[in-house]
């Protein structure tokens, strides 16, 4: 199967647009070379995805940090000329010949992750999330409306089978959810935002809100997002800095879902996700933290990036910090174990708190 002349022309146009965009710093722009375009523009996956599906989000959103998504699992290999260098640069040097290590969620080590802020002076809340894709389904741009509905139905059955007293809860479909409830869930950091322009341009918001929703326990400390960016985002969160408790709950919840739903795993790339930044462990462990002194200094960003930490704003990715509160998390998710990913955040945040305490 080959891509149509129109699609190939659009790919050339994205390339030309990126080359002409002097303020664009995305990994897409850097790694979509003339050669990569020439070699890949006519290719199509078995499900019909093309290089255009991979690059259109970054082509439309020139402020993307990364700019590419995989419409289906095959795209990671068929378009590896583009994915591999982007993955290598994002995930701290993970090469085309490297393999994701075996799973280690850290069951045996949760006790080592003692409260980072026992006095409650710095950390507002802690959250660890991972992503999962249900085996047998492609990613958003290749899903039909029926696929979405079938996946949601399957997940509803799984959620209703959870009887653990701490984790059991209710599934709330987005379809029919009143605006007030939705807004509050988003503002309180529990629910995904609507209309993400990066996902929209990647064709990932089709049939919205069908098939999308959120499951959570009563305390909203264990949550599962259904069919937003990934098929599933499994989340554990709570106020304060007790990372061990948050990880322990995530492992418990993840295991309950995993026994009922087989997930898609790649021999080299680990758990498969729609965005290459989330491959491997898929783990983003974060704190919302107040660091008024060190965050005001010029070297704050460098200190964080040297410790492989990512800084986000208070309402998540692409948002601004408010009242001096930052979202600090591990950046790398591939090429290390789940426990190491959490540990990267844990050790880094511990250091940041020491620096804040010592700062004048
Ligand atoms: N430590 C935390 N405490 C409370 N809320 C958090 C924490 N970390 C993230 N959040 C909230 O989770 C929501 C989702 O954030 P965001 O979209 O940045 O990350 P994500 O769910 O990890 O996914 P992605 O990386 O795909 O964007 C936002 O409302 C954000 O404020
Ligand atoms: N939620 C994510 N997958 N975040 C990572 C990348 C997001 C967006 N495509 C960008 O390049 O900036």
Automatic annotation (TrEMBL):
GO-annotated molecular function: arginine kinase activity; ATP binding; creatine kinase activity
Cross-referenced SUPFAM superfamilies: Glutamine synthetase/guanido kinase (SSF55931), Guanido kinase N-terminal domain (SSF48034)
Native organism: Caenorhabditis tropicalis
Domain of life, source organism: Eukaryota
Origin organism lineage: Eukaryota, Metazoa, Ecdysozoa, Nematoda, Chromadorea
Keyword Transit peptide: no
Residues that hold ATP according to the record: 125-129, 189, 233, 284-288, 312-317
Name under which the protein is recorded: arginine kinase
Family label: Belongs to the ATP:guanido phosphotransferase family.
Enzyme class: transferase
Positions of the Phosphagen kinase C-terminal domain: 122-359
């Amino acid at each position: 199967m080959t891509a149509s002349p129109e699609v190939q022309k659009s790919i050339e146009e994205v390339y030309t647009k990126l080359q002409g965009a002097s303020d664009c710093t995305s990994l897409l722009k850097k790694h979509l070379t003339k050669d990569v375009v020439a070699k890949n523009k006519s290719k199509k996956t078995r499900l019909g995805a093309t290089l255009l599906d991979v690059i259109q989000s970054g082509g439309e959103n020139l402020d993307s940090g990364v700019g590419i998504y995989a419409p289906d699992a095959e795209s990671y290999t068929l378009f590896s000329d583009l994915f591999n260098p982007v993955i290598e640069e994002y995930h701290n040097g993970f090469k085309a010949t490297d393999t994701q290590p075996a799973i280690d969620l850290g069951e045996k080590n949760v006790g080592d992750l003692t409260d980072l802020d026992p006095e409650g002076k710095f950390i507002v809340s802690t959250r660890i999330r991972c992503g999962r894709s249900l085996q047998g389904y492609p990613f958003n741009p290749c899903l039909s409306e029926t696929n979405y509905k079938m996946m949601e139905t399957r997940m509803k059955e799984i959620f209703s089978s959870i009887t653990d007293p701490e984790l059991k809860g209710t599934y709330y479909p987005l379809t029919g959810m009143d605006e007030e409830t939705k807004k509050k869930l988003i503002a309180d950091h529990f629910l995904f935002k609507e209309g993400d322009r990066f996902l929209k341009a990647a064709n990932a918001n089709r049939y919205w809100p069908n098939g999308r929703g959120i499951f959570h326990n009563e305390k909203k400390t264990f949550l599962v997002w259904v069919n937003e960016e990934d098929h599933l985002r499994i989340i554990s969160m709570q106020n304060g800095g007790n990372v061990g408790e948050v990880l322990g709950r995530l492992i418990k919840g993840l295991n309950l879902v995993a026994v009922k739903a087989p997930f898609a795993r790649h021999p080299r790339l680990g758990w498969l996700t729609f965005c290459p930044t989330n491959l491997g462990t898929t783990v983003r462990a974060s704190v919302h933290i107040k660091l008024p002194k060190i965050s005001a200094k010029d070297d704050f960003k460098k200190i964080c990036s040297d410790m492989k930490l990512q800084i986000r704003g208070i309402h998540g990715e692409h948002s601004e910090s408010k009242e001096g509160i930052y979202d600090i998390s591990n950046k790398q998710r591939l090429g290390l174990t789940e426990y190491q990913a959490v540990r990267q955040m844990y050790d880094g945040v511990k250091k940041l708190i020491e620096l804040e305490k010592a700062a004048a």
